[in-house]
Automatic annotation (TrEMBL):
One of its GO terms (molecular function) is transferase activity. Gene3D superfamilies: Crotonobetainyl-coa:carnitine coa-transferase, domain 1 (3.40.50.10540), formyl-coa transferase, domain 3 (3.30.1540.10). Keywords: Transferase. SUPFAM superfamilies: CoA-transferase family III (CaiB/BaiF). It comes from the Bacteria. It comes from Paractinoplanes ovalisporus. This is CoA transferase.
Length: 376
């Protein structure tokens, strides 16, 4: 079987995180992704744990299934080689700043006259028609500018970032979706287009689906903060011997849980007798959950909560997940041999198709590995 994007050729001029995560999604779905790297390679080749120079863990995980071609786009020869590839490609994606793309002839206007059906995707930090268009941006900067770091810092002593590069990867996912939509449009109309997915607006829009809350209305009915997720007592709960993650949500679930906990009186309390009141006063209810869960062990609570159909799970570390035999049996965690880096552990795609194959066992390329194949 072939992936659902089999036959799609992508010229990937991205580096670090946001763009490579976008093209990772496309490669997993069967697209042929040609990673155009500068002579020194993507900086991600040197990020994280390293056993083989130029093949660090982050690069291996973010660039599986891609082909690597080295071109110096600051030279006329490099740009000429790229233009020879352009007629063979469906998509070009980059995460450069607008002026940087213009300096090397990679603005949309430079390419569209040669390929009017090209899907061209730019992933800048800030939108290209705004005052910050050419400001440099990385994930930490965008987490701060988007409000994500402030949101993450609620109930903490000092500001903090989400531990994973959330803005980068979220933007990459959004860009992959936008590219697939533009390809669909091209296939129907024959017309390509420029797609732009800026990191700042993508991260703001992601959070404000629920966090806009009272500011959804004009005039505002309350602050831009969703009270349930901001509740200080919303956290993994201590049990008698560990921690447990519990999410009591619907009215039926609260009725079953509070009855089990011996606090059925709260079901008739005027602060909790509707879903709206339970959300507004979530922290008080979560304090009850925290108090009750300390009384039994994690295993005892898991059995009781599963019996009454209340969502719960033990607090897992990544070591727990990677050693879980269920994930190995399903193929989500797998092992394969890289021709240079040796035996590697891989995390599979979460996308499951009944009639298409998602391939995650293709290795990440060495620098320039596919120059002869592609440029010939």
């Amino acid at each position: 079987m072939n992936g659902p994007l089999h036959g799609l050729r992508v010229l990937d001029l991205t580096g670090t995180f946001s763009g490579p995560y976008c093209t990772l999604m496309l490669a997993d779905l069967g697209a042929e992704v040609i990673k155009i790297e500068p002579p020194g390679g993507d900086i991600a080749r040197h990020l994280g744990a390293t056993r083989t120079p130029g093949l660090a863990a982050i690069f291996l995980n973010m660039n599986r299934g891609k082909k690597s071609v080295v071109l110096d786009l600051k030279t006329a020869e490099g740009r000429a080689a790229l233009h020879r590839l352009l007629p063979t490609a469906d998509v070009l994606v980059h995460n450069m700043r607008p002026r940087a793309a213009e300096r090397i002839g990679l603005a949309y206007g430079d390419l569209v006259e040669h390929r009017p059906d090209l899907v061209y995707c730019a992933i800048p930090g800030f939108r290209s028609d705004g005052p910050d268009a050419d400001r440099p941006a990385y994930d930490d900067v965008i987490q701060g500018a988007s409000g994500m770091a402030a949101l993450q810092s609620i109930n903490q002593e000092r500001p903090s970032y989400v531990t994973t590069p959330l803005a980068d990867k979220l933007t990459g996912l959004t860009a992959a979706l936008a590219i697939v939509a533009a390809v669909r449009h091209r296939d129907v109309t024959g017309v390509g287009q420029r797609v732009e997915v800026p990191m700042l607006e993508t991260t703001v829009a992601f959070a404000l689906c629920e966090q806009l809350d009272g500011w959804t209305f004009e005039p505002p009915t309350g602050p831009p903060r969703y009270p349930r997720t901001a509740a200080p007592n919303r956290r993994p709960y201590e049990t008698a011997d560990g921690h447990l993650c519990v999410m009591v949500y619907t009215g039926e679930q609260w009725a079953r849980f509070l009855t089990l906990a011996g606090r059925a009186d709260l079901l008739r309390h005027p602060d909790f007798d509707t879903v709206g009141k339970r959300i507004a006063n979530a922290d008080a209810l979560y304090a009850v959950v925290a108090e009750v869960l300390r009384e039994r062990t994690t295993a005892e609570w898991l059995a009781e909560l599963e019996r009454i159909d209340v969502p719960c799970a033990p607090l897992a570390s990544y070591a727990d997940i990677l050693s879980d035999p269920a994930h190995t049996a399903s193929g989500f965690v797998s092992y394969h041999d890289h021709p240079v880096a040796g035996k590697l552990r891989s995390i599979g795609s979460p996308m499951l198709f009944s009639a298409s194959e998602v391939a995650v066992d293709r290795h990440a390329p060495t620098l320039g590995e596919h120059n002869n194949e592609v440029l010939a």
